[in-house]
């Protein structure tokens, strides 16, 4: 079977020239210039603007609100985005920590930031091991919060912690929030990295979690994350292909529960579109691009190389071409109405 990365590279190469030459079709997709990468929502946007001006107060208020309301999914997302911003501009965070050194929200952003910096270091494992107390301080400052335990699971992966140690951390995470998406993604990533080639185990974990989740939960898309890992790892046999398609179908059902252009499921839809491209399910992929609207996300497109926004747009253009090609192939030949052949990859 065609390797996903080879298929994606071929699709991007074909689409790039077409995307840059001529008007885009009217098929319900926003124009290229309207698509944004990792655009903040209406709550995070003002906090990032204030942080850019050196003011930490809106970020502090935002994270305090998520903690008090137990909005753990939103809290996790905002912490990740604020820490990513602080990698290049951390004056506001330093000021926040100086004024409130025990603030659970400041400690959490600081821990996320330092883990990101450690991951980028050549001495990754050594630097990560030094961050254990920082993660522990964030966890102690907010005992109900599962997000520090998502950090702990990421930390366990980077330090090559034993499976026993991982299970202990996992128990702490699910005790605080049994269906926290971020913790489940961290656990799935740990399994995929620590046990390379153990795709069955990863799928089993993801499928069990999805089966236990409520219908609208993002955890229902966890199997498609496992499918993404399988596809990008190399060749796919017929048994794995069936499992990947089933994971995609489950994620399609989840995606359909949210409105078009909704930023909440944007990353899930981007992963789903990537997997559908890898399976050459062009029509289904085009529908997900329509539902994504202007909300491109770095993951998974950054995994295919630099310029994730450009790769998203190229993949979208390539899918458009494939759907159009399949539609042309389905038109009956002149004089042979009803006997035309359909395109081979039309989903």
Description:
The protein is an all-alpha fold and 347 residues long. It has two domains: 1-39 and 237-327, no CATH class; 43-181, no CATH class. It is 66% helix and 1% strand. The protein is built from 18 helices and two strands. The chain has helices at 4-20, 44-52, 57-68, 72-86, 91-99, 104-119, 124-129, 132-141, 147-158, 163-176, 181-194, 199-212, 222-233, 238-255, 266-278, 282-292, 298-301, 308-330, and strands spanning 36-37, 295-296. A two-stranded parallel sheet has the order 1-2. Helix 15 runs antiparallel to helix 16 (282-292) and helix 16 (282-292) packs across helix 18 (308-330). The longest helix has 23 residues, at 308-330. 43% of the residues are buried. Mean pLDDT is 89; it is low at 335-347.
Brief overview, please?
With 347 residues, the protein is mainly alpha-helical. The chain contains 18 helices and two strands. It starts with a helix and ends in a 17-residue tail after the last helix.
Keywords:
single chain, 347 residues, mainly alpha, 2 domains, 18 helices, 2 strands, 66% helix, globular
The parts where pLDDT drops under 50 for at least 5 residues are 335-347
- Helix tally? 18
> What is the overall silhouette?
globular
User: Can you count the beta strands?
Assistant: 2
Helix content: 55-70%
Structural class of the helix and strand makeup? mainly alpha
Task: Provide the number of structural domains.
Answer: 2
Give the SSE string.
Answer: HEHHHHHHHHHHHHHHHEHH
Strand order of the largest sheet: 1-2
Q: How far apart are the termini? A: 17 Å
Question: What is the typical, i.e. mean, pLDDT?
Answer: 89
Q: Roughly what fraction of the amino acids lie in strands?
A: under 5%
Our Rg estimate from Cα atoms comes to 22 Å
């Amino acid at each position: 079977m065609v390797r996903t990365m080879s298929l994606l590279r071929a699709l991007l190469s074909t689409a790039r020239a077409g995307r840059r030459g001529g008007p885009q079709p009217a098929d319900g997709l926003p124009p290229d210039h309207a698509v944004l990468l990792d655009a903040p929502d209406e709550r995070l946007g003002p906090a990032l603007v204030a942080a850019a001006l050196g003011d930490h107060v809106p970020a502090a208020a935002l994270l305090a609100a998520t903690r008090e309301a137990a909005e753990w999914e939103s809290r996790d997302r905002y912490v990740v985005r604020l820490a990513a911003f602080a990698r290049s501009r951390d004056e506001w965070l330093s000021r926040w920590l100086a004024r409130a050194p025990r603030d659970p929200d400041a400690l959490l952003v600081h821990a996320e930031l330092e883990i990101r910096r450690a991951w980028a270091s050549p001495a990754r494992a050594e630097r990560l091991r030094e961050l254990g107390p920082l993660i522990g301080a964030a966890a102690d400052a907010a005992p109900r919060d599962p997000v520090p335990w998502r950090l702990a699971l990421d930390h366990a992966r980077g330090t090559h912690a034993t499976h026993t140690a991982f299970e202990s951390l996992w128990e702490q995470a699910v005790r605080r929030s049994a269906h926290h998406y971020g913790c489940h993604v961290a656990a799935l990533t740990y399994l995929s990295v620590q046990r390379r080639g153990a795709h069955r185990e990863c799928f089993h974990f993801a499928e069990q979690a999805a089966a236990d989740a409520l219908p609208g939960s993002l955890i229902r898309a966890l199997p498609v994350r496992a499918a993404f890992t399988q596809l990008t790892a190399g060749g796919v046999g017929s048994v794995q292909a069936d499992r990947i398609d089933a994971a995609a179908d489950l994620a399609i059902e989840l995606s359909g529960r949210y409105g078009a252009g909704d930023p909440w499921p944007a990353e899930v839809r981007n992963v789903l579109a990537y997997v559908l491209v890898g399976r050459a399910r062009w029509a289904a992929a085009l529908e997900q691009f329509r539902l994504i609207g202007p909300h491109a996300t770095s993951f998974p497109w950054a995994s295919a190389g630099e310029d994730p926004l450009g790769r998203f747009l190229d993949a979208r253009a390539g899918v458009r071409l494939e759907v159009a090609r399949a539609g042309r192939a389905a038109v009956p030949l002149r004089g042979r109405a009803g006997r035309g052949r359909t395109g081979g990859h039309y989903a």
